[in-house]
């Protein structure tokens, strides 16, 4: 593929020098554009952004340097997602009669914006809403309104974390109490350091995010907004596996350094605020657990890996769009969905 790109690039330059006509330049620009689109799984990711021949050549160079289609096995791109982990604690069977009968608060979680909740049973959704409300109130211990088995509580907790990047103060670890019969009756939540000064931390978070949201809101199409956010977050953050709270969107907006999970949650949050469906997707990539996004643009779902593109862009000191709006077929070369994420919409 590298040789194909080099041949195409050389052909353009020769034809421009020899022919010098507008017709030839236009025809070959279109040809290269189609070639780049094909290399990204047949998606139209570059059609809207490439407006002149210089952009075509720059995009080809970027694709050669780090485009999707060849599995990454070096340190340029990394996978540092920490799966949500629950630790079970056996409790007395007598406590199995305890349930929280307080009616759960009513929330509006439309399926197109919060897909993980939609994957749950009605009973699990009740617990989901209860856990979400407890996190808002910084409750550490929650007596469940419905008893669940251990597999179900895992799905509920994953769904809450995956749907709600705004809960940046919630730690990805939790514990739960279960009886000798395996019934989970309580959940203990954990919080990071921002919970100590949540009001000020939340204001900082909202202010930083608003700068990106306001900039994107001035644009017309969802694709333009998506591209703006993609670049803005690459400008805002650097990949650092040692960054604080790197599983949260807060690490991107405030600390300016994060890992794949932080990038993905930050991108998800901004797109949600722009009313563009965007999902937190987890799986396996480049030898480790990884997180990226699925976004809905112009009637189609696409895979987006912002953290990998930021890392690739840092190497070449430019913006990378190698992992921008890819089909499942294109991204499956080095990304594999796991857990509940396998149920997210197909990206064709």
Automatic annotation (TrEMBL):
InterPro entries: Papain-like_cys_pep_sf, Transglutaminase-like. Keywords: Membrane, Transmembrane, Transmembrane helix. Signal peptide: none annotated. SMART domains: TGc (SM00460). Residues 88-107 are annotated as: Disordered. The chain crosses the membrane at residues 7-25. The keyword Membrane applies. Pfam families: Transglut_core. It comes from the Bacteria. Residues 252-308 form the Transglutaminase-like domain. This is Transglutaminase domain-containing protein. It comes from Lachnospira intestinalis.
């Amino acid at each position: 593929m590298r040789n194909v790109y080099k041949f195409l690039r050389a052909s353009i330059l020769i034809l421009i020098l020899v022919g010098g006509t507008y017709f030839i330049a236009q025809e070959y620009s279109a040809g290269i554009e189609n070639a780049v689109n094909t290399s990204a799984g047949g998606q139209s990711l570059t059609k809207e952004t490439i407006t002149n021949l210089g952009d075509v050549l720059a995009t080809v160079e970027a694709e050669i340097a780090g485009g999707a289609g060849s599995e990454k096995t070096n340190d340029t791109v990394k996978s540092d997602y920490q799966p949500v982990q629950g630790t079970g604690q056996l409790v007395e069977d007598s406590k199995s009669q305890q349930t929280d009968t307080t009616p759960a608060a009513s929330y509006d979680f439309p399926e197109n914006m919060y897909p993980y909740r939609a994957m749950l049973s009605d009973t699990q959704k009740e617990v989901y809403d209860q856990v979400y409300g407890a996190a808002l109130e910084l409750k550490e211990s929650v007596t469940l309104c419905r008893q669940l088995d251990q597999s179900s509580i895992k799905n509920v907790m994953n769904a809450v974390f995956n749907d709600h990047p705004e809960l940046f103060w919630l730690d990805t670890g939790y514990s739960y109490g279960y009886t000798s019969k395996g019934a989970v009756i309580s959940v203990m939540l954990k919080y990071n350091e921002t919970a100590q000064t949540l009001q000020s931390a939340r204001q900082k978070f909202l202010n930083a995010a608003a700068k990106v949201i306001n900039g994107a809101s001035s644009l017309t199409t969802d694709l333009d907004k998506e591209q703006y956010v993609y670049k803005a977050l690459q400008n805002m953050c650097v990949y650092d596996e040692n960054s604080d709270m790197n599983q949260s969107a807060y690490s991107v907006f405030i600390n300016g350094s994060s890992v794949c999970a932080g990038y993905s949650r930050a991108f998800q949050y901004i797109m949600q605020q722009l009313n563009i469906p965007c999902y937190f997707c987890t799986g396996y990539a480049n030898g480790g657990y990884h997180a990226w996004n699925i976004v809905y643009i112009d009637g189609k779902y696409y895979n987006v890996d912002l953290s990998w593109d930021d890392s690739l862009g840092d190497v070449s000191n430019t913006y990378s769009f190698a992992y921008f709006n890819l089909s499942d077929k294109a991204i499956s070369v080095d990304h594999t969905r796991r857990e509940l994420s396998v149920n997210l919409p197909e990206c064709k």
